[in-house]
Write a structure and sequence with these properties.
The chain is of the alpha/beta class. The protein has one domain (18-265): Aldolase class I (TIM Barrel, Alpha-Beta Barrel). It contains eleven helices and eight strands. The protein has helices at 26-32, 42-51, 70-80, 98-107, 137-149, 165-171, 181-184, 189-208, 224-230, 241-250, 252-267; strands at 20-24, 56-59, 87-92, 114-117, 153-158, 175-179, 212-216, 234-239. The radius of gyration is 18 Å and the shape is globular. The N and C termini lie far apart (47 Å).
């Protein structure tokens, strides 16, 4: 049962948070799956994050159901009907189970705003690379068209390679989601500066072609502001592991609000 009636839901923040925060709740499901009593609740986690101001919820249901399960996807989509100004994003490999969710959710009239195509193998530990062009183009294009036919936006998980953005545009994708681990793992100031330069260059190339820009993977409270200050035009960050880890100490509400504050800081005008 929802914690709040629809009339009680605060509107999504507008004009303040220049980059949307979508909370990936996979790790809540991972913890839940270690027992058989539905604790912690994936639905409650999503609702508390939305109530705290998150602009979206992301899930990545893998075929082995190690965390998010099919039932979670449908229950979360039903929950999102009560939050019409927020977005539901499903990540996954379109050659595995992702397109089944796209077809099923839209056929049921449930919300699905974006699907993010990620080139993961079925047993992959975590996402660790983007799509390759031109190698993947012919396979991806018809699946992108299928998603578009169901009015679902498509984002492609990509490494920060400026030269690849034209191929992403040509294949029909709406956005890229930059895989940000190379920035998050940079150990020195020089390495981090070089990494930010690559992301900024790729973002400018994407924007010049009319592609939207998302980002995610190991972004956290310590590195998020600097990333958004350096990389232009990021419309959405999808953050899961670090945010849920922070929530174990701070709670969902305080954690989401702090991530939103870090986003605000990136766009603050200094004098």
């Amino acid at each position: 049962m929802p914690l709040f009636r629809q009339s009680d839901h605060p509107p999504a923040p507008t004009g303040v948070h220049k980059t949307a925060l979508s909370v990936n709740i996979n790790k809540v499901a991972l913890l839940r799956n270690t027992r058989h009593i539905d604790i912690p609740s994936v639905l409650r986690a999503a609702e508390l994050c939305l109530e705290a101001g998150a602009q979206g919820i992301t899930v990545h249901p893998r075929p082995d159901e190690r965390h998010i399960r099919p039932d979670d996807v449908y229950e979360l989509a039903a929950l999102m009907k009560d939050w019409p100004d927020r977005e539901f994003n499903i990540e996954g490999n379109p050659f595995q189970n992702l397109m089944g969710f796209v077809r099923d959710l839209t056929a049921r009239g449930l919300p699905l705003h974006q699907c993010t195509f990620v080139p993961d193998s079925e047993d992959q530990f975590t996402s660790d690379h983007g799509w390759s062009f031109p190698a993947d183009a012919d396979r991806l294009q018809p699946l992108i068209e299928q998603a578009h036919a169901r009015s679902v936006r498509v984002s492609l998980f990509m490494d920060p390679v400026a030269e690849a953005m034209a191929a992403v545009k040509a294949v029909g994708a709406d956005r890229v989601e930059f895989y940000t681990e190379s920035y998050a793992r940079a150990s020195s100031g020089t390495e981090r500066s070089e990494a930010l330069g690559r992301f900024a260059s790729a973002a400018r190339a994407a924007a010049a072609l009319g592609l939207g820009i998302n980002a995610g993977h190991d972004l956290n409270r310590d590195n998020l502001t600097a990333f958004l200050r350096s990389v232009p035009g990021v419309q959405e960050v999808s953050i899961g592991h670090a945010l849920i880890a922070d929530a174990l100490e701070l709670g969902y509400t305080a954690t989401v609000k702090d991530y939103l504050r870090r986003i605000d800081e990136a766009f603050a005008v200094t004098t």
